[in-house]
Specification:
Blueprint lengths: L6 E5 L1 H7 L7 H17 E6 L3 H9 L8 H11 L7 E4 L27 H9 L6 E3 L4 H11 L4 E3 L2 H11 L4
Parallel strand pairs: 1-2, 1-4, 2-3, 4-5
Amino acid sequence: MKRRGRKCQVVDTNVLVVANGRSGGSLACARNCARALLNIKHFGTIVIDEGDRILSEYRGYCSLAGQPGVGDSFIRWVHDNRGRGELVQVIALTQRECGGGLAEFPEGPDLAEFDPADKKFVAVSNAHQDKPPILQASDTKWWGWKAALQACGITIEFLCPDEIQAAFERKFQVD
């Protein structure tokens, strides 16, 4: 739910990593990621899961001390504001008993090979009433899934679209 005009967004972990300058991406991409995180902190709302799947993944790549990078500062902000619904919205996800996975992840043949580690981001977006966009920086697989996700009403905002498209085409030998 949007509150006070703040735009809700889901943020893939690689956005924090790229913003910290630790991904090997371009300086322009790192700036785009840093700008996106700062915009959420000042004007937006991040959406995470109640079971801390997303926050735990952030902790594996960034410092909860909040420094030295923008990604580190962002995880600290998320952690510190978790109880403030206008800044950090928390969505409950349902673990499937049979076969594993998350019940909120959309089913379909085009998503059958979706990376299990990334399903939490899609499930959180899909479970939220506004289906907020997922910010993505450098994971090339997402470029290939964008049409299948769009068909389910899930939008991916690529912060470095030219770079990720070129990397996707190289990696998967697409002309």
